[in-house]
Amino acid sequence: MVLKMSDYKTPVFADWCPGCGNFGIYTAIKMALAELQLDPHRVVIVSGIGCSGKTPHFTFANGVHTLHGRTLPFAIGIKLANPELEVIAAGGDGDGLGIGAGHFVNTGRRNIDMTYIVHDNAVYGLTKGQASPTLKLGLQTKSLPKPNINEAVNPIALALASGYTFIARAYAYDVRHTENILVQAIKHKGLAFVNIQQPCPTYNDINTKDWYDGKDRIDSTTGKPKPRIYKLEETDWDPIVKSPDEELDKTVAALRKSREWGDKIPIGVFYKNELVPTYEERISKRIPFYIEKPPSKQEISDESGAPTVTIEEWFKKLKV
Amino acid sequence: MHAKKEFNWMIGGPQGSGVDTAANIFGRACGYGGYHLYGKREYHSNIKGLHSYFHFRISEKEIAANVNDVNLLAAFDAETVVRHIREVIPGGGVILEKEDLNTRIQDIPTLPPEFIAEFKKYLESKGIGNTVRDLVGEAKKENIRVYPVAFLDLLKDLADELGIEKLSKVTRMKNVLALAISFSLLDYDASLVEKAINAVFIESPRIAEMNVLACKKAYKYAKQTFGDSFSHKLKKLDVQGERIFLLGHQAVALGKVLGGCRIQTYYPITPAADESEYLEANEIFELKNGNGAIVVTQTEDEIAAVNMASGAALAGARASTSTSGPGFSLMVEGLSWAGNNEVPIVITYYQRGAPSTGLPTRHGQDDLRFAIHAGHGEFPRIVLASGDVKECFFDAAKAFNYAERYQMPVIHLIDKAMANSTQSYSVFDVGQVKIDRGKIVSSSRIFESGEYERFKFTDSGVSPRAFLGTEGAVMWYTGDEHNELGHISEEPLNRNMMMEKRMNKLEIAHKEIPIDERLNFFGLKEAENVIVSWGSPKGAIIEAMEMLEDEGYELAFLQVRMPHPLPKERIAEILGKGKRRISIEMNYSGQLASIISEKTGIFMDFHILKYNGRPMTTTEVYEALRKILRGDSPKRQVLNYGS
Ligand SMILES: Cc1ncc(C[n+]2csc(CCOP(=O)(O)OP(=O)(O)O)c2C)c(N)n1
Ligand code: SF4
Ligand SMILES: [Mg+2]
Known about the structure:
The structure holds two protein chains of two kinds. By secondary structure, chain A is an alpha/beta fold. Chain A has helices spanning 21-35, 55-58, 71-81, 93-99, 101-108, 155-162, 175-187, 209-213, 247-258, 279-286, 311-317, and strands spanning 43-47, 62-65, 86-92, 115-120, 123-124, 130-131, 166-171, 192-197, 229-231, 265-272.
């Protein structure tokens, strides 16, 4: 049976504000799942708390809607217990880069074969528009009483520094492109990070769709807006590390690229390196049968309920 | 104080000087000779230099507590003499470094000012000087033998014999010298000591060899220098059957593996980390056919640890995490999520002295109420409390059955005294361990409605559980209140039903779990003096009771192993018969006692409490109980033994 995009939809009403960028991301996720023909029971979408955190309820695939900031630890636990599952973590920018920043960094160190999507709207949507860690210094979005006094974190640079092996940016209103990036991220061997610029029409009145489209920048010759967003793949950008000696240069180039913002905002793949061993491979080095018999698949008792472990062998080491 | 054949040895010195290794060798050597033992380790939150000691009690029968007495003290440094010489009982002995005799107490840099101030009062009361020699002189008056040893000379000889030029290469062997001198004084079979040395250094034959030589030398030295002056002797016993010798944290690790735990997450903290490291060192183990493995993951914090364990449990692995107070504090939000989502995780909670960082390496039972109440909202959980190393093993295995059968988090309370105590046992009967995974739905089943409802309403409240990845089942979990499918729902009626569904599971657990898994009863059925306690005081209480029974007192002891849900009916029944109800706990407020009062309306007549960070000894429990039984005790006694 061929699965269609509509097969990944639940009857649950998607309660985002009209025009919310989350709709674009949600559509792209469903398209990517259909494109990859992933069985809903084999997929697990893990989310945090925030507007973005509701995504799993609208998606017909296993969904685990966790705690604010704890998206990644739950996702890792699921993946480690059953590496056959296709785990996609998706959370807000506050979730992943504020309260969950420690997990963001430490997950990078593990290169687990899963995907992590950050819905970057530069605000805390669900708590009514406070500044998120990606809101630029000095900006005052609609519900801020005063301009933002904190510097913004650069998610792409942070992912590079933390060890993510696939790092990309997408734009929620370019659904096709987002889908394409997500498909690449899911297929990537290792930990993939996709930061999705997500307009929040309700609280972020600065980084709006019009702003991304460049409606405030009319080309004097054509009379048309000059879009801020451009695609890396339409330039001569090559993000792929093909041998270990390319690693440093590609990292530095990606870091440089990650600082482009404002008039020109690149989307696409910034960095990709499949030469780094995955966490699963590292575990398999120590536990050779890890993939065939991961924690969730080990027989722990026989039919009588007796444990399968012969603990007597272990006791021998403790004998006096 | 005790008629039984037993011996108490204490070894102390600065941290990092080999106290632990010496203790390990000592324990094994005694074990080979047929003795049972209980060893308690005390150490500072420090890596090198501060005082640490190991107190070993050996006996012909199984024991689970220390006493106050020391028969032989082996002191590496002046501080050990100062801190412990008064624990040595008449007829006992002290082995010390000859040069330390001249040390003035106030010159020992590691002694804290509050100790010195207190100690001064003692010196003044005795009217003696302030050197180690003065203390030793005082001990001699009490018929304590003193054995000054020129350790440096011995080490120099040893270096010469081994052809080692640098003295620093052999100074570490001071511990084996002290140990061997102890055994020589006891006239113990040297071959057993050498066997123990070889076993402890099995990985490095050269070091084993050097230490065996040191042992031989020390034996000879002690015989020549001190002759047959020590009155205690230790004879090899003739015993049958095999013995194991393990620490509490090892018992938990073994119990977990046997019980099917296949993922352990942790963030380092004393005294819990030892368990995870031990598991990682033994991550692959034998099964009846083939090999099994546990994946041990060191996380970035305890928040990650608890939530990663939950994730793993959702995917179908038996998963757990281990921590102590500060870590558990961070886990609380995750615990609430697990409660709301009916996730069967096991949290092993090693209590230590609190609040805050508190006494990081010391003992306490401060967290019973915290374990029972932690987490926002009301949700079911089971709290277990082991009373000794053996119970740690069986409870660790059983915890997963409770967690999966009732689909709720289980908190297994241990404490530092158990985690770091060595105990010997006859090999455990593991035949009694069974695995019960509760109601599980596997792929073969067809779902009637075509939809799998993870949180389906049932009579018991327990919904058949499918793991993430089960064919034909797609499911949702959320920390929000949810409907049967696991989708967010704020509807009032659904809310009531879900609350009742979850909370009902606790009622079912309370009805189903056999009483003998929840309470231990010791002593006389109709005794008028009833003791109630939980956790590690168990060993001291049982022994103290035996001594008091010999004196003609009638006592019963109720050990609560499942403080939540509390087996309140049975507790009320037993306490109702008692005339004097005595609670014994290692905290300030008598937490279990107050919980019992809350649930049964019965109040304790006497409280024996302790919160100085050192476990209760048989001696002090005996004395405190005796006061109560003789009618000359206040309502509340606070014990203070230990250094
Ligand atoms: C521990 C904790 N603190 C605070 C909150 C309240 N809270 C809910 S959503 C949210 C912010 C969400 O922002 P973000 O992660 O960017 O997600 P968005 O709503 O923008 O998608 C906060 C602070 C919470 N749920 N948990
Ligand atoms: S508040 Fe913003 S992010 Fe949240 S649903 Fe509304 S538009 Fe979307
Ligand atoms: Mg946000």
